[in-house]
C-alpha cells in the first residue's frame, strides 16, 4: 500500500563515501534567546574517506557500532575492591558528534564526543599525554590538542576526601585511596584514585580535576573533569551526558538538554548547528512539534545500567505491519536485560539477534521484488542489502516506525534506516546485530537507538519531567 512506503530519492549522493568523520551536535537556534538556556555553537570535524576501498568506512562504522553495543550491554560492575571505574566510550571518528567546551582560567578549548551512554567528562591532559593506536586518517597523534593544568589558576587535583571524588568512585572511596587509612589519618593530601575507562576499541586513564567549566554567560566552578594521561584509540575527549552523578547534566543541574543532529551525508560540508542546555525550569511546558514518551525507570538489579536513558518501546512497524517482538525483549527485567535505551554515542541502531531477525525478515518479505546484494553484504558488514536500480526515479521502500509508550511515534525517513552502498543501485539496512560472526551474546538492553536513526530529528531529554521528546526537523542552520 502506498501509505506504507517511504520514498528514497535516486541517486542519494555521498551517503556512505565517508563514514570516518565527525559531524556536529545540533539543535534549534531559536533557543539562544532563552535566558534560562545555554546555546553552544559547534564546528564540525571531518575525516576524508580513503578512496582505495569504498566499503572500509562502512565496515568500520558497523563494527564500531556493534562493539559499542557489546560494552553497553555487558559492562562490568564497579566493586569496592578496585580503584578504577569501568564504562564504555565510542571513538568519534566512526560517526559521532562533537562539541567544544572550555575549561580553566584562562579558558582552554577542548573537543568532546557527545555521549549519552556514559557519564564522566574527560579530555586529553598535560603535555605528556600519550595516545596509542590513534593514527586515524587526518589525525596526527603527536598533535592532539591537550588541556594543560599548569596553565590554569583554577585547576586542582581532586582530593580523596573531597565528597565529589565519591561521585565517581562511591561513598567508600577513602578505603580505596592508595596510602590512605581513614581510621588513622584524614587523607586530605591524598588524591582521588586513578580512573580507567574501558570501551570496545580501547581505553583511557587519568586523574580527576576540579576545574571551572566556562560558558560565555556562565562559569560552573568546581566541575569534576577527567585529566586523561594515556589513551588507546581515543584521540578526543568524551562529554558524558548520561544519568550518572558525575555527568555534565547532573553537575550543572540541567532541567533539559536538546540537540538536532545534522544528516550523515559525509560530503565534507561546513554545516553546523547547536546544542542547547537548559538550566531554568520549564514549568512542565512541552516544546512545540515534539512527541513525548516517558523515560522508563532504570533497572535496579544491575547498577551498571543506571546511567542509561531507558524508553518504553511498545512496537516496531515495517510497511504498516507490526513486527511481533517478544515482550520480554521490549520490557527490561530487574537485572537490566531487555528494553530500549537512547544513545548518541552509537552510530547505527543495535538490535539483539531475535529482534533483528524479525525486523530483517519483514523487510525481505516486503521487498521480495528486489534481489539481495549478497556481495555487498559481505563487503559492507550490513544486512540485508538489495539491488534497487530505479533509473532516475525514486524507489519506494517500506516505512519503518518505532512506537513508544504514550502514543509517540518515530516514523523514520528512508535515509535514516537505508543507505546507498558502493553505488546508486544498492541499499543496505543500517541496523546492526550480534551473532553474525560467532555466537550471539544476550543480556543488557535489547535495542540501542543510535545517532544514525536520530539524524534530522530534534531530540529533547526533559530531565525535569522525566520524558524523551522528538520530532522531525531539517537540522542544518542554512535551511
Give an account of the 3D structure.
By secondary structure, the chain is mainly beta. Helix content is 11%, strand content 30%. The protein contains six helices and 30 strands. It has helices spanning 56-73, 165-169, 248-252, 327-330, 353-366, 374-380, and strands at residues 5-8, 23-24, 37-41, 97-103, 108-115, 122-124, 130-132, 156-157, 195-199, 202-215, 218-232, 237-240, 256-260, 274-278, 291-294, 309-311, 313-318, 321-323, 340-342, 349-351, 385-387, 395-398, 400-404, 409-412, 418-420, 426-429, 431-432, 447-449, 457-462, 467-472. Strands 2, 4, 5, 6, 7, 8, 9, 10, 11 and 12 form a ten-stranded mixed β-sheet that branches. The two termini are 32 Å apart. The relative contact order is 0.20. Keywords: Aspartyl protease, Glycoprotein, Hydrolase, Protease, Signal. Residues 97-471 form the Peptidase A1 domain. Residues 1-31 form the signal peptide.
| Strand residues, percent | 25-35%
- Rg calc: 22 Å
pLDDT averaged residue by residue: 80
- Let me know the number of strands: 30
What characterizes the major β-sheet?
A: 10 strands, mixed
Q: Judging from the principal axes of the Cα atoms, what is the shape?
A: globular
Amino acid at each position: 500500500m502506498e501509505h506504507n512506503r517511504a520514498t528514497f530519492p535516486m541517486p542519494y549522493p555521498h551517503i556512505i563515501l565517508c563514514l570516518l568523520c565527525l559531524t556536529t551536535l545540533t539543535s534549534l537556534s531559536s533557543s539562544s534567546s532563552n535566558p534560562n538556556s545555554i546555546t553552544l555553537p559547534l564546528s564540525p570535524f571531518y575525516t576524508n574517506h580513503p578512496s582505495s576501498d569504498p566499503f572500509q568506512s562502512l565496515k568500520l562504522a558497523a563494527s564500531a557500532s556493534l562493539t559499542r553495543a557489546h560494552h553497553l550491554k555487558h559492562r562490568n560492575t564497579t566493586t569496592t575492591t578496585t580503584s578504577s571505574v569501568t564504562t564504555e566510550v565510542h571513538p568519534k571518528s566512526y560517526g559521532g558528534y562533537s562539541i567544544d567546551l572550555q575549561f580553566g582560567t584562562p579558558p582552554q578549548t577542548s573537543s568532546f564526543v557527545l555521549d549519552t551512554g556514559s557519564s564522566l567528562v574527560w579530555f586529553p591532559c598535560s603535555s605528556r599525554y600519550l595516545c596509542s593506536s590513534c593514527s586515524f586518517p587526518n589525525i596526527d597523534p603527536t598533535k592532539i590538542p591537550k588541556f594543560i593544568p599548569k596553565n590554569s589558576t583554577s585547576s586542582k587535583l581532586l582530593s580523596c576526601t573531597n565528597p565529589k571524588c565519591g561521585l565517581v568512585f562511591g561513598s567508600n572511596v577513602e578505603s580505596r585511596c592508595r596510602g590512605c587509612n581513614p581510621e588513622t589519618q584524614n587523607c586530605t593530601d591524598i588524591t582521588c584514585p586513578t580512573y580507567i575507562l574501558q570501551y570496545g576499541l580501547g581505553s583511557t586513564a587519568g586523574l580527576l580535576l576540579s576545574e571551572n567549566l566556562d560558558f560565555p554567560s556562565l562559569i560552573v566552578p568546581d566541575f569534576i573533569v577527567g585529566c586523561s594521561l594515556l589513551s588507546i584509540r581515543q584521540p578526543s575527549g568524551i562529554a558524558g551526558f548520561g544519568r550518572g552523578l558525575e555527568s555534565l547534566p547532573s553537575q550543572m543541574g540541567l532541567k533539559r538538554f536538546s540537540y538536532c543532529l545534522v544528516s550523515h551525508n559525509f560530503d565534507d560540508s561546513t554545516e553546523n548547528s547547536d546544542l542547547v542546555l537548559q538550566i531554568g525550569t520549564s514549568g512542565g511546558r512541552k516544546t512545540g512539534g515534539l512527541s513525548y514518551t516517558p523515560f522508563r525507570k532504570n533497572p535496579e538489579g544491575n547498577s551498571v545500567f543506571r546511567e542509561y536513558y531507558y524508553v518504553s518501546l511498545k512496537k516496531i512497524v515495517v510497511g504498516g505491519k507490526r513486527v511481533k517482538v517478544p515482550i520480554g525483549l521490549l520490557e527490561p527485567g530487574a537485572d537490566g536485560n531487555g528494553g530500549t535505551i537512547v544513545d548518541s554515542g552509537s552510530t547505527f541502531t543495535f538490535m539483539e539477534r531475535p529482534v533483528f531477525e524479525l525486523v530483517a525478515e519483514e523487510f525481505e518479505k516486503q521487498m521480495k521484488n528486489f534481489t539481495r546484494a549478497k556481495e555487498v553484504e559481505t563487503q559492507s558488514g550490513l544486512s540485508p542489502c538489495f539491488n534497487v536500480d530505479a533509473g532516475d526515479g525514486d524507489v519506494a521502500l517500506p516505512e519503518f516506525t518505532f512506537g513508544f509508550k504514550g502514543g509517540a511515534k518515530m516514523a523514520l525517513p528512508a535515509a535514516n534506516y537505508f543507505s546507498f552502498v558502493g553505488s546508486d543501485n544498492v541499499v543496505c539496512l543500517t541496523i546492526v546485530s550480534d551473532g553474525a560472526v560467532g555466537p550471539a551474546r544476550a543480556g543488557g538492553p535489547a535495542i540501542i537507538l543510535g545517532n544514525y536513526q536520530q539524524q534530522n530529528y530534534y531530540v529533547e531529554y526533559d530531565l525535569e519531567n522525566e520524558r524523551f521528546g522528538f520530532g522531525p526537523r531539517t537540522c542544518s542552520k542554512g535551511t
